[in-house]
């Protein structure tokens, strides 16, 4: 066995072991996240598979390389957690999963939007205590209102199709206009206009320097006071401290967050007996109109199956000296 996977979730383990067993490659699955403290556990493993919240900075990559690792197979689309320049210098191959079911994330974004709009979590909490009052549970129709979609790739387009089904006006913001979204009647506008006019705002752009804190004080100030904001993309798209300040002023009717910019080491783990040291996350959890989930939008059998299948192919491509659309850094072919 010369492959180890970090950050493996309980529901993911059996699928990984089955897939790599069927591929006659074998895999060692670890629940712990990858960082400088855990990286030595990969010693002797040529291939390391990482999850989205693992830390693969220069120091970690150096430890991995010293232990014999030559390939990083990221089980995610995003790769902002990997120092690609250092990986290239070390002669490592890095691959990601460039795409998987866009419906998993788009549908979950809508689950968050609907839940915060119709106060579903609060309602369930009440009815479990046999409190069947409707006070404070009034939502509103999405039909006839405006949905703002930032990022109109596969996931954003899937979100837009659902919005179109609700009968919503569509505003989009992206560097490239998606013909599928245009066919739905989407109007592409500047992000300032989108923030000002949208009743529902959903984030589906990648996290790059130009989108870091895309939603900050200015964007939040421009939004309608009763807008709903949903983020199933990357936590760093939202300035969480600015969001807390806006919520304290009574801004926004609801917020659905499946990601958080400081989620590494928190999401995917049980901290129910710990003191929450992250003051911003703790404060966000106190707002009745904020719903936080733990980066689970992608977590369907369909999407996870596709992620694992793509990871198997990425490892096979590395061993065969091939490149694909998933290859981020191509190191020397294995001997």
Which tags fit this structure?
7-stranded parallel β-sheet; 6-stranded mixed β-sheet; Rossmann fold; 12 helices; D-isomer_DH_NAD-bd; 335 residues; alpha/beta; 2 domains
Topology:
Layout lengths: L2 E3 L4 H13 L5 E2 L17 E4 L7 H9 L4 E4 L9 H6 L3 E3 L6 H16 L2 H8 L18 E5 L3 H12 L3 E5 L5 H5 L3 E2 L2 H7 L2 E4 L13 H6 L5 E4 L8 H9 L5 E4 L21 H6 L5 E3 L8 H20 L6 E3 L6
Parallel strand pairs: 1-2, 1-3, 3-4, 4-5, 6-7, 6-9, 7-8, 9-10, 10-11, 11-12
Antiparallel strand pairs: 5-13
Structure, explained:
With 335 residues, the chain is an alpha/beta fold. It has two domains: 3-100 and 300-329, NAD(P)-binding Rossmann-like Domain (Rossmann fold); 102-292, Rossmann fold. Helix content is 35%, strand content 14%. The chain has helices spanning 10-22, 58-66, 84-89, 102-117, 120-127, 154-165, 179-183, 191-197, 217-222, 240-248, 279-284, 301-320, and strands at residues 3-5, 28-29, 47-50, 71-74, 93-95, 146-150, 169-173, 187-188, 200-203, 228-231, 254-257, 290-292, 327-329. The strands form two sheets. The protein has a seven-stranded parallel sheet with strand order 8-7-6-9-10-11-12, sandwiched between helices. A six-stranded mixed sheet has the order 2-1-3-4-5-13. Helix 1 links the parallel strand 1 and strand 2. The radius of gyration is 21 Å and the shape is globular. The relative contact order is 0.14. It comes from Streptomyces pactum. Keywords: NAD, Oxidoreductase. This is 2-hydroxyacid dehydrogenase.
Brief description of this entry?
Helix content is 35%, strand content 14%. The protein is of the alpha/beta class and 335 residues long.
């Amino acid at each position: 066995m010369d492959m180890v996977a970090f950050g493996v979730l309980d529901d993911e383990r059996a699928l990984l072991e089955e897939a790599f067993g069927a591929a006659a490659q074998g895999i060692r699955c670890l629940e712990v996240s990858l960082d400088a403290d855990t990286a030595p556990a990969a010693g002797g493993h040529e291939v390391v598979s990482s999850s989205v919240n693992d830390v693969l900075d220069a120091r970690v990559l150096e430890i991995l390389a010293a232990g014999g690792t030559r390939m990083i197979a990221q089980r995610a689309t995003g790769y902002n957690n990997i120092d690609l320049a250092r990986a290239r210098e070390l002669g490592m191959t890095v691959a990601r999963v460039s795409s998987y079911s866009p419906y998993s994330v788009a549908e979950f974004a809508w689950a968050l939007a609907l839940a915060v709009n119709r106060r579903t979590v609060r309602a369930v909490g009440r009815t479990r205590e046999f409190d069947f009052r409707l006070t404070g549970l009034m939502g509103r129709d999405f039909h006839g209102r405006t949905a703002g979609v930032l990022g109109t790739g596969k996931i954003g387009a899937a979100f837009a199709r659902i919005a179109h089904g609700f009968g919503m006006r569509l505003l989009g913001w992206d560097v490239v206009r998606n013909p599928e979204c245009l066919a739905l009647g989407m109007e592409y506008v500047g992000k300032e206009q989108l923030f000002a006019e949208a009743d529902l705002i959903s984030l589906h752009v990648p996290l790059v320097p130009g989108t870091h804190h895309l939603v900050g004080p200015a964007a939040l100030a421009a939004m309608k006071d009763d807008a709903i904001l949903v983020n199933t993309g990357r936590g760093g798209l939202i300035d969480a401290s600015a969001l807390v300040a806006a919520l304290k002023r009574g801004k926004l009717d609801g917020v659905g967050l499946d990601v958080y910019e400081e989620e590494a080491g928190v999401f995917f783990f049980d901290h129910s007996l710990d003191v929450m040291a992250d003051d911003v996350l703790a404060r966000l959890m106190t707002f009745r109109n904020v719903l936080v989930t733990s980066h689970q939008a992608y977590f369907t059998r369909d999407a996870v199956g596709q992620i694992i299948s793509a990871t198997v192919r990425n490892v096979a491509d590395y061993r065969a000296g091939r490149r694909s659309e998933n290859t981020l850094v191509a190191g020397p072919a294995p001997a």
